[in-house]
């Protein structure tokens, strides 16, 4: 095992920790995979990333739901729709110009950051009332919508889910994070149901990276639960800044190339 692969495993651990605590582990893991295996097919790299991610996300999700009460009656059908629409989105990636999504997501992330920054009470109070019928319907709608986004594009899915649960369902950040893991698991499984049967998987890379991701997620979940809603609010805003920076740089690079 060479130094480059050992460094990738370290990044996998940190990505699992980051993803479990606040989301966005792919920001670390995907570039590290492409740098470690520059000659590999992009689909294989993405398949390895999804396999490692789903192992970490599943581990984090199990830890969260054991300690945090989540609305299963809304989450399970929403997760099913997310799975279906994520698979549909993955199948449409070659037909839809996804490069238009980066400028759109840059705007969405900026709005989310500004809203969270100025609304200090957002996600700080634990909800005690039951979900309404309208909220159940909203859960199904957002499950399908964000599932489709994750299948066709992907970056920032966890942040979108957490924001939706906090803003539209008045969840605190810990409940929102726990709930987002349930949806994220199914969207990752949908992507794997495309990558694995089509041969886009290198198990010699995927299995060690998945173990590193899993170990990181254990620490990340503990950090999130111990830190509480205030920690998650600040972590969420830092993640949004990272996403804004990434999307902004990608959009600027395309613009400079065209000019």
UniProtKB/TrEMBL annotation:
This is Probable membrane transporter protein. Its main location: membrane. The keyword Cell membrane applies. It is found in: Cell membrane. PANTHER family: MEMBRANE TRANSPORTER PROTEIN YFCA-RELATED (PTHR30269:SF0), TRANSMEMBRANE PROTEIN YFCA (PTHR30269). It is a multi-pass membrane protein. The chain crosses the membrane at residues 44-62, 74-94, 100-118, 138-166, 202-224, 231-249. Belongs to the 4-toluene sulfonate uptake permease (TSUP) (TC 2.A.102) family. GO terms for cellular component: plasma membrane. Keywords: Cell membrane, Membrane, Transmembrane, Transmembrane helix, Transport. InterPro entries: TM_pro_TauE-like, TSUP.
